[in-house]
From TrEMBL, chain A:
This is Oligopeptide transport system ATP-binding protein. Belongs to the ABC transporter superfamily. PROSITE patterns: ABC_TRANSPORTER_2 (PS50893). SMART domains: AAA. GO terms for cellular component: plasma membrane. Gene3D superfamilies: P-loop containing nucleotide triphosphate hydrolases.
TrEMBL record, chain B:
It holds the Pfam family oligo_HPY. Residues 5-254 form the ABC transporter domain. Belongs to the ABC transporter superfamily. GO terms for molecular function: ATP binding; ATP hydrolysis activity. PANTHER family: D,D-DIPEPTIDE TRANSPORT ATP-BINDING PROTEIN DDPF-RELATED (PTHR43776:SF7), TRANSPORT ATP-BINDING PROTEIN (PTHR43776). It is a peripheral membrane protein. Its main location: membrane. Keywords: ATP-binding, Nucleotide-binding, Transport. One of its GO terms (biological process) is transmembrane transport. It comes from the Bacteria. SMART domains: AAA. This is Oligopeptide transport system ATP-binding protein. Gene3D superfamilies: P-loop containing nucleotide triphosphate hydrolases.
Length: 327, 343
């Protein structure tokens, strides 16, 4: 089965003083219809840049210098601006973290949803408005026929996120990219929005990419996961595989640093020393080596970049074999 | 022995009165009658969603904002009645750490000056303060040589270490921490949580730890208070609260936390409160959680004295009577619910 959305060797960079600074390097990912791929990483890991690059939304002077972004077989990176704009929205929808910036405060939410519809479809004003009411109902906004005429500030944070979701799915996209869609929301509302996204994916058979820093959200929502660190995918596999037996020391360390609500009392947290390197200061070898509990000179951790190896469940680590023996 | 901190029926109301054009302005009861104590060396975790009033409560305790009513006693002195001068004399003993380490420190001061400032403000000589600042940097895991650097040269985690060093510079007995790790990545967050535990073990400082992350709060707290729309709805020793929560709001909060375990996540029933928190400007009648409460709906379905409300039938107690925070499990386990032992 071919993937609904696939990145191959995506590399994006900004000009630097001497050489170009690579924000993301050689990122390969795919997601099938009806499936959720979670992309996990800390701030600066490149998880958001990967997808803004793929969709032609990377702010200047950043640009994609290598790779492909295939949406149902069509490479988005070869499309002109107008064709790309038609593709976004119609075939690939996006939901971002901050529900306030995604909505225009001076227009009624119904008008904003209708605008999305009319930009792509030959609909009358009334027909677009009726569709907007239907979409608000689909994202479970109570009393949608009345709320369609409200302004964004009349909605709570969770309701605004639902409105943005309605806009993202308005044209029936095959792929939905949700970038930290629940990070700004309280935990009870976060759970409601995640339920909604899961239900929409199942009902429409969309492929979903969920960008998050929260491993709990990954466990709840995703089928497969890609862990990013310093601009690269360092581990990927099914959620079951990666959570049961993480292979990359970064993933292993990440699990040990989360305070879990059901951990036995007195459990110590094992933090990862230091902080992730900035894109311009990534070390020559494995970018995680300076913080890694398993790094060694003999394995070449500080000298060369480890490739992503393994079929299905893969990790980019020189010490993989040794770690499995130790574990 | 009396408590380090004793908070009684504390209230803060914003707004009210009239607007410029004579229209009534809604009164927001941000903190609406809260009482608790904190012992020396203890950590009380304070959790709640946006709009629950938890940050306002933290500021009231230190009298960074003036309460509308109620009393705060700290080391047997009435903070709420203290003169400006008396309050200033107490400041070294009660400190605060904020969420955004960048917003709460002056970008034009060096790290050394930021940490030394509270000391010189309270009469420590400059040379002495600089020496102590260097030692504090080492205590929070930074190099004393970093004293000459400016805030923008530090990462988020390092800036929070500076904020903590400044807060503990005068050896306080109480530090209020308002979302101290929520702006940090998980790997860095764990470093700061461990640092706080070390500082507490060494100095015996008490923490009022305000956060929305239930995992973080469980990790650091001895006792936990759950806030909802200006009230504490449940307060208990940590393991009692997490192991056997009694208030339906606490139950649904804990159920909503996504846990890093795919097997448990997939098999877990979806217990969700209805809708969102609402506003402290228009509080519901009776129990303020009743419009969202899944338990009230279950209890009403089993019969008893019910009334028509929220488009369904709810127990009349929930709609009409404001439940008090009262012992419900053991003496130390308090819950404000008419039906603390129903499922």
């Amino acid at each position: 089965m071919s993937a609904a959305f696939e990145l191959r060797g995506l590399t994006a960079a900004v000009p630097g003083e001497k050489a170009a600074i690579r924000l993301v390097e050689d990122v390969s990912l795919h997601v099938h219809a009806g499936e959720t791929l979670a992309v996990v990483g800390e701030s600066g890991s490149g998880k958001t840049v990967t997808f803004t690059s793929a969709l032609g939304l990377l702010p200047k002077p950043g640009r994609v210098i290598a790779g492909q972004a295939l949406l149902e077989g069509v490479d988005l990176l070869t499309l002109g601006p107008e064709a790309l704009r038609r593709m976004r929205g119609a075939r690939i929808g996006m939901v971002f973290q901050d529900p306030l910036t995604g909505l225009n405060p001076v227009f009624r939410v119904g008008a904003q949803i209708a605008e999305v519809l009319r930009a792509h479809l030959p609909l009358s004003r009334q027909a677009a408005r009726d569709r907007a009411v239907e979409l608000l109902a689909r994202v479970q906004i109570p009393d949608p026929a009345r709320r369609v005429d409200d302004y964004p500030h009349q909605f709570s944070g969770g309701m605004r996120q639902r409105v943005l979701t309605a806009m993202a799915i308005a044209l029936g996209p095959r792929v939905l990219i949700a970038d930290e869609p629940t990070t700004a929301l309280d935990v009870t509302v976060q759970a409601q929005v995640l339920d909604l996204l899961g239900d929409l994916r199942d009902a429409d058979g969309m492929a979903m990419v969920l960008i998050t820093h929260d491993l709990g959200v990954v466990a709840r929502q995703a089928d497969r996961v890609a862990v990013m660190y310093a601009g690269r995918v360092v581990e990927t596999g099914t959620v079951a595989e990666v959570f049961a037996a993480p292979r990359h020391p970064y993933t292993i360390a990440l699990f040990r640093s989360i305070p879990d609500i059901e951990a036995p009392p007195g459990t110590q947290l094992a933090p990862i020393a230091g902080s992730p390197p900035e894109p311009a200061r990534r070390p020559a070898g494995c970018a995680f080596a300076p913080r890694c509990f398993a790094a060694s000179e003999a394995a070449g951790c500080h000298a060369t970049r480890p490739p992503l190896t393994g079929t299905g469940h893969a990790a980019a680590c020189h010490r993989q074999g040794a770690l499995e023996i130790a574990a | 022995m009396s408590a380090l901190l004793d908070v009684r029926d504390l209230r803060k109301t914003f707004g009210g009165g009239q607007t410029l054009f004579g229209a009534p302005r809604p009164e927001v009861r941000a903190v609406d009658g809260i009482s608790f104590t904190l012992a020396r060396g203890e950590t009380l975790g304070l959790v709640g969603e946006t709009g629950s009033g938890k940050s306002t409560l933290g500021r009231l305790v230190l009298r960074l904002i003036e309460p509308s009513a109620g009393q705060v006693r700290f080391e047997d002195t009435d903070v709420t009645a203290a003169s400006t001068r008396a309050l200033r004399a107490m400041r070294p003993r009660m400190q605060m750490v904020f969420q955004d380490p960048y917003g709460s420190i002056d970008p034009r001061m060096t790290a050394g000056a930021i940490i030394a400032e509270p000391m010189t403000a309270h009469g420590v000589g400059r040379a002495e303060a600089a020496g102590r600042a260097a030692r504090l940097l080492a205590q929070v895991g930074l190099s004393p040589a970093m004293a000459a650097r400016y805030p923008h040269e530090f990462s988020g985690g390092q800036r929070q270490r500076i904020g903590i060093a400044r807060a503990i510079a005068l050896d306080p007995s109480l530090v209020v921490l308002d979302e101290p790790v929520s702006a940090l990545d998980v790997s860095v967050q764990a470093q700061i949580l461990n640092l706080l535990a070390e500082i507490q073990a060494r100095s015996g400082v008490a923490f009022l730890f305000i956060a929305h992350d239930l995992g973080v709060v469980r990790h650091v707290s001895d006792r936990v208070a759950v806030m909802y729309l200006g009230r504490v709805v449940e307060m208990a020793p940590r393991d009692a609260l997490y192991g056997a929560p009694l208030h339906p709001y606490t139950v649904s909060l804990l159920a909503a936390v996504p846990r890093p375990d795919p097997l448990k996540e997939r098999n877990r029933p979806r217990i969700r409160p209805i809708g969102e928190i609402g506003s402290a400007a228009s509080l519901p009648t009776g129990c303020r959680f009743h419009p969202r409460c899944p338990r009230a709906r279950l209890v009403a379905a089993r019969g008893g004295d019910t009334v028509e409300a929220e488009g369904t039938r709810l127990p009349s107690a929930c709609v009409r009577q404001d439940p008090l925070l009262a012992p419900a499990g053991g003496a130390a386990h308090l819950a404000a619910c008419h039906f603390p032992h129903e499922d």
